[in-house]
Structure prediction request, 312 residues.
Amino acid sequence: MQSSALVFLSFFCLMAVGYLWRYLPRVPDGGTVRSSIGALVLNILLPALTFKTLYAAPIGNDLWQVPLTSIFVCSISVVISFVAYSLYQRIAPSTSRATIGALILASSWGNVAYLGLPVVSALVGVEYQRIPILFDLLGMTPLLWSFGVVIAVHYGSPDDDRHPILHGIATLRRLPPIYAALMGLLCNVLHLPVHPAFLHACNLASDAVAPLMMISVGIALRWHGLHRLVPAFPALLIKLVVAPVLGITIAQLLGMTDSSLRATIIESAMPTMLLTMVVAERFHLDTDILAFVIAVSTVVSFISVPFFASLV
Prediction:
């Protein structure tokens, strides 16, 4: 494990490289680079990391405690943000439904893979990489493509008449990390042998995940429109303060302790998930304010995450 100051300073440097990419001459535009990184990570590197982590992970209560914590934290955050923005809309009735929908997504879904995975690996240890994977693939991501899509359809405008749940299921079926997680757990539980060369290849691929993810986060950051801070403030408060408090409470109630508890709290404290932008764009929510919340919550999390991690 490393000191939180060193970890976050290193992450800041990589994010700065990503952010400054847009100012470099004669290079591909940031959107193209981010899409390429995303495709590489999603289809090759993250499945490799997922498989090798869950293949070697101890089979214990984490398998149900972590996903349950993720589901409860996300679901309760949705309810709180819905109430908060229903009240806000009374104060500012001109706020569009597309903006409210985007802010509810921003309040409730955390960047538990792209940012959470490298943070947990550095602060808690690589042997706890299973916590972000379980938190994401068995909690946050399925909820985003089911509950999150329903919210987006309610507040936005879909391009087709397909039922939102069917759209979400179709998306989940195309996510390679889901299959890698199932295969890793299956080989682990059944004690199926895996050739050392394949596991070594997975290890090599895994080493590239964290730096590429941080650079991608940096490329995605957008700072224009500070006037959006007022409507964004409840979302930032819920995501960076309320969610980790929920995470601490729920994880302890479920019996989690020690490093597993600390890793789960870190996951609960993650800033807004980048993947919410995909949902917002697909269903025509307010992507500008969502991008703003992602940027501000990511930077502020460099202070809030170490604080909540230090509580256990």
Notes: Residues 248 and 265 are 6 Å apart (CA to CA). The radius of gyration is 19 Å. The chain has one domain: 4-19+27-309. The longest helix spans residues 62-91.
